[in-house]
Amino acid sequence: MSKIGIFFAEGFEEIEALTVVDVCRRCEIEVEMVSAYGERQVLGSHGILVTMDKTMGEADFSSYDMLVLPGGGKGTQGLEACAPLMEQIDAFYNAGKYVAAICAAPSIFGHRGFLKGRRACSYPAFESHLEGAQVTAGPVEIDGNVITSRGMGTSIDFALAISGIFCGKAAADEMAVKIVYKQ
What we know:
Blueprint lengths: L2 E6 L5 H13 L3 E6 L5 E3 L5 E3 L2 E2 L10 E4 L3 H8 L2 H12 L3 E5 L3 H6 L7 E2 L13 E2 L4 E4 L2 E4 L5 H13 L1 H10 L5
Parallel strand pairs: 1-2, 1-6, 2-5, 6-7, 7-11, 8-9
Antiparallel strand pairs: 3-4, 10-11
């Protein structure tokens, strides 16, 4: 079974993060919600307190097939400031393993040089941070091992794209029907 680690810092965008958790778990993909801090509870950008499965110190990165970064301006800053997480993001990217980010968080990939020559998208106000990318207005871009998405309104597209990587396009399309998405 595939396993995804999704990382939360204070100020994360709740819908972007929890949609990935929900849709992927419905597709029977194991998902661990991981706090970028030492505490198990992380406060979202709209005051929703979410309890994590693990903290950074408890996360087993060798067990993950993908690392996911939700957006939210403050949440993205918190993720990028977490040096141990950035080391793992770099290691995953360099090993050809999947890294995914939505909304403001693709800016992290731009800052790290991951997007040079790749198609990528982000929240419009962060497009200038997609250094070296061919910026698109698509809801989701998958280019090699890098997945990016634009924001809250593309959260289901993002979650279904991630699900499709691990359970196949047909299963992701079937899940879209089950959740009554764009019928």
